[in-house]
Structure formats: C-alpha cells, structure tokens
Fold this protein.
Amino acid sequence: MKVVLRNLTKKFPSRDKKNKADVIAVNNFDFEIPDGKLIGLLGPSGCGKSTTLNLISGLEKPTEGQVFFGEDDVTGLPPEHRGIGLVFQNYALYPHLTVRQNILFPLENLKGKDKLSKAEMLEKAMEAAKLVQIDELMERKPGELSGGQQQRVAIARALVKRPRVLLLDEPLSNLDARLRLQTREEIKRIQKETGITTIFVTHDQEEAMSISDMIVVMKDGMVQQIGRPQEVYDSPANLFVAKFLGTPPINVFQGQVKGGTLYLDKDPVLEVSGAADGPVCAGVRPEGFLLRKDGTLGCELSGVEVMGRDISVVASNKASMMPTIRAIIGAENLAEISADASQVRFCLKPNKVFLFHPETEERILFEVVK
Amino acid sequence: MQKNIQKEKQSQSTGTTLSPNTSRKAGFFRCFSRCKGWLYLLPAMLFLGFFMVYPLIDVFVYSFEEGYNSASQTYFGTGTYNYSYVLHDPYFLQALKNTFLLVIITVPLSTGIALLISVGLNSIKPLRDFLQTVYFLPYVTNTLAVGLVFMILFKKTAYSDGLVNLLIQWFGGKSVDFISGPYWAKMFVLCFYTIWVVMPFKILILTSALASVNRDYYKAAQVDGTSKFRTFMRITLPMISPMIFYLVITGFIGAFKAYSDAVALFGTDLNAAGMNTIVGYVYDMLYGDSGGYPSYASAAAILLFAIVLTITCINLLISKKNVHY
Ligand SMILES: Nc1ncnc2c1ncn2[C@@H]1O[C@H](COP(=O)(O)OP(=O)(O)OP(=O)(O)O)[C@@H](O)[C@H]1O
Ligand SMILES: [Mg+2]
C-alpha cells in the first residue's frame, strides 16, 4: 500500500503570549512513499517527525492537505479505520497484561463481520509472536522483559491485525548500542518478510541509512531531501543534509571560487568548472582526502587515530569552519606520515567535495574534471 | 555511649599486640552495622509500642476480666461473659447493624461516584481547574459549617421543613423528618453526609491517579480501535487500581470507625436515636450517661478490631488478583 502526502501541513497554535506566530511542525509535505518499502524519516529533534507520523496515523488532524493510502483519501478517517500499526517510542505495552494479552488486545476489539473466534485470535497472536521471535515469552508481563524483547512485543502487537502501513516512532532509542544494531536488522527482516509499507522515525542518521530503502531528511518542518540513502549521501541537496549524514561528519571550509578553481585559504585545491566566482562553503567528506607529499591542501597535523582498517587523521586548517578537520584514510598510508611531522598535505577526491552557497546553503553544482 | 567505652578500652590497651584489638573493633562495627537499621527504628518502635501495642494488649486483657470495677481496680474472674453481654445487648446489635449498613452503602458509592467525577474532570479541558477546586472545597470547610449546611438541607424546625423537604413537597411528596423521623430517613442522611465528607479526598486522589496514566496507552488503544468503555475497563481501571484499592481499604476502615458524623447529625444520645455506631457504643460504655463499664467497652472494641481485621484481610486477598502495581 503506497502512502501519499499531498501538501500536508500541520500548525500548532502558539502558547507564547509575545510571539503569536503558529508553530509550523509540518510544512507542505508533498511526497509519495512506494508500496512495500521501508522509509526512514530523519531529522534533528523537534523537526516534526513525530507529528508527520501522527498525521499519517490519524492521531493528529492536518491543518491543510491530504493523506492517501493507495488511492483512498484517509484524511478524514480516524486512526482505527486506517488499518495502521503503530509502535511507540516507549512501546506503550500495557504493563498489567501478559505478552499474549497485549498481542491479543487489538484482535479483541474487532467487531461485526471481522470478529474472530478465540482460537483464530490465538493463532494470529502466535503467528505474530513467531515472526518477532518472542513465542517463548508469551506468559510474561512487559516488566519482566528486556528492552529489546519489549520492543519486539510492541511490533508484534502492531502487526497482529496485518496493518496496511506500519509506523514506528524512534523504536530503537531506548536500547543500548549493541541491541540497537541487532534490532534494526530485525526490523528490516520483519519488514521484508511481511512486505508491509513501513515508516520509521529516527534522529540517528546511521540507523536510517543502514535499513531504509528511502530516507526523507527533514529540518524545522521542511523536507530537505528525499532519496535512497546512498544517493542522498553522495549528492546532498544542501549544507544541512551534507552535515547531517555521515560519521564522522563532513568537514566544512570557507572557500573561494576564482576562474573555475576552488581556493581554500590560499591553496588552489580543485578544478570546479561551471561554478560561478565568489565565496562558497566547501564540504569535504572525511573519506575524500588523499594523503600526498605534493597534495594541494596543506594542514597542521594534530594527531592520528588508528582504528584498525582505517586511520583517522586529525588536522586543522585556517579555512575550516570547525576547529579540527578529520580525514579517514587507509591504514596502509600510515607510513606516509613521519613520526615528527607537523604538516600534512592532501589531495581531494572531486566526487567527495560539495560546494554550497554561503547564505542560502543550497548546493552549487560543478563539473568534475577528470 | 558504647563507642566511647570502646575508645577508652582502646586507649588503655595501647601497647598490647594490635591484632586482637583490631579484630574486636571490627567485630563491634560489624555488629553495629547489622543492628543499625533497628537502632534507627527504635524511637518509632518505642513510641508505637507505648501508645499502640500496649493499649491494645491492655484492652484485650480488660475484655476478659469479668465485673471489673474501675474505682477499686478489682474483678471477679476471667471469662467470655463480657462478650456474651455485648453480643446480646440490643444497643450493640443496633450499632453493629448501623455500622455495617454505613460501610456497605458509603464505601462503594463514594468511591464509585468519586471515580465518575474524576473521569469527567479528567476528560474536560475548560473549567477543569475551577471544578477541581469546587469539588475540593468540602475538604477544607469546617465541620460545623458542613453541619450547618446539612441542618438547612434536612432539619425540620418551627420555621421551615428544610430545603430537601421543600423540594419533596414541590414535587408533590409528603415531607419527612430526616433528623428524628423514620430509621431509613436518618440512615439516608447519615450516608449522604458520610459520602459528602469523604468525597473530596477521593476525587483528589483519583484525578491525580488518572492524570498520571501515560497518554500513549490511550493513543495505542485508539489506534487499535478500542471502544471508550473497553479502554476504561481494560486500561484505565487496572492502571489506577492501586489507588482505588487504597481508597477502598481506608474507606472501609474509616467507615467502621465512624462516630463523630453521627453525633454531628443526631446529637450525643445516639442510642435513643437508634443511630449509634460501634465506636459510639464503646464511647457510651466508657463515658456515656449509662457508662462506666470498661470491660464491656473493651469487648466491643475487640469485636470491632476483629471485624476490621477480617475485612481488611479479605480486601488484601481480593486485591492480590485485581490490583496491578
Ligand atoms: N501538541 C503540540 N502543541 C504545540 N506544539 C507542538 C505540539 N506537538 C509538537 N509541537 C511542536 O512541533 C514541532 C515538531 O514536534 P515533533 O514532536 O514532531 O518533533 P520530532 O521531530 O518528533 O522531535 P523528537 O525527535 O524530539 O521526537 C516542535 O517544535 C514541537 O515543539
Ligand atoms: Mg518525536
């Protein structure tokens, strides 16, 4: 079931006495979520991710715009008639009911022609529990489960009615690092097995990148970019997206384009034909640096961190907007840095360098010269 | 104290070999840290023992001493005569009946009504704070003022029949004397008064209990298409069940101990009014016009104690199944 948002806007009335302007939590969202895909809604805290999810689930009514599930306009439909499954950030498992009762709960609400017999309900609950591999824990109370197990119960409860769309609001944020890795694989597997269109909210870019088929990057209620994770990473639409994706984060420099050449501080570092002359913000991905004796960019070396396969070179440069820049290079290049070196020189990989307008922060495209 | 002694010993024993001294010291500290909890509890336990446990035992002893004379502090013998007297005393039986009726009527009703009002309060936005204050007012109002309100509502005087009677007459009924009339009317007033007095506290507890239920549970239930009624029965009630249980237990105990409310409404001669309670009976046996029988009073008090204990145990047993912490 594809989900379509059309000019979706949600405004909250301001409670601030001085500033009467409404809070625009979701601003004119207009995109389509393809059927059977896992979509990550990604953005910093307060950017409107939960609100978007609530609009899709029907827990909030939009100020403007519509939501379609497939061809049906569901904008006016209350949540219970939309056929969605929702997993809350804190799971919201009923603490006084056992895992079995929690999973059965949505089924017991069915009325009229949808009503199931006790045996059918138990069978469906068991099926959902098996899918998330908690069928051994059916008689426990949520308080007696680990965070990861609770999370899976919450997913089972959301899946047991076979929803058309599954919505997950920061489902992993309560888990520790290891469990988070495990569980996100699990979510991906469950999504693949069921083929249910899934929308997944997170503020962790790594999480979103690793499991989503498509990510929607948001900021302050506005969509910044939509695309496949690698696409967005390789071609960010603006400085915000470039900064938000990637660990370690992108290095940002204040640069100058003169006659088709990018200058950082005084070093001419790259041919950027097609970019207009003037000041720019230049972003260089950490993996975009090549250690060369005759490199175009000179930096003060402040340290080298060895991380096994790769090494991370920490350096500083006058043009950098951050106090340090960080370059990730293959460990075999370690020999190129002498022990007492205070300077390093880099060449830049053209496809890892992005130029942005210093005010609008929009991307400035240029032709990569081979 | 003991620490000081230990120190003195230590200073005396300087020069002797170290090892036995240190091990003794360590032993003392181990003992001290083991008993520390009890030491902290000691003042409270002394206080409780003196003012609660000792009187309880004393009353228990009194209740088996036959023909006790408080002036000479003598008695004829021991036995269960006091109990048999009390259990055959029509005043006691009346008091027992009154108390049971009061408990059975007021505890469920007041808790139920308080729950309804709290749910109502919890589901409205405008005027909520105002209404909450209104419902809480009786709690901070002086008992005499409440009594006065009840006089105006129910009492028949030479000048008026009371507001309730006016209403009854207005609807074409016959006026009833609620204060010195038929038994059911008096019982009605007593129950009404009791419910009125305990309600604000219950509403306060229940509204805060309801407000503390995480909204996400309701959102989850809504997404699953749970009806309002089922949400209330399956989610809200279990979530606030510890608070309801607390109110029921304290409500039972409070109603069994009722006395002052009846006095406020019907005066001090409750036996004559037929509206005595068990605590009232105990009081009358001790200090009333026909009083001076501490043995009978003790027997009645022990009976009350046994009843309250039994009911509370039953409550606890029931709660094991239905209260979710
Ligand atoms: N009920 C509300 N009334 C007023 N403003 C609200 C309401 N709910 C959310 N907002 C505002 O809307 C904006 C978006 O909130 P939202 O909860 O969607 O953020 P989010 O992206 O989910 O953040 P987080 O990652 O912290 O959960 C915020 O600025 C928030 O203050
Ligand atoms: Mg959120």
About this structure: Confidence is low (pLDDT under 50) at residues 1-18 of chain B. Chain B touches chain A through 19 residues (CB under 8 Å). Chain B has 14 helices and two strands.
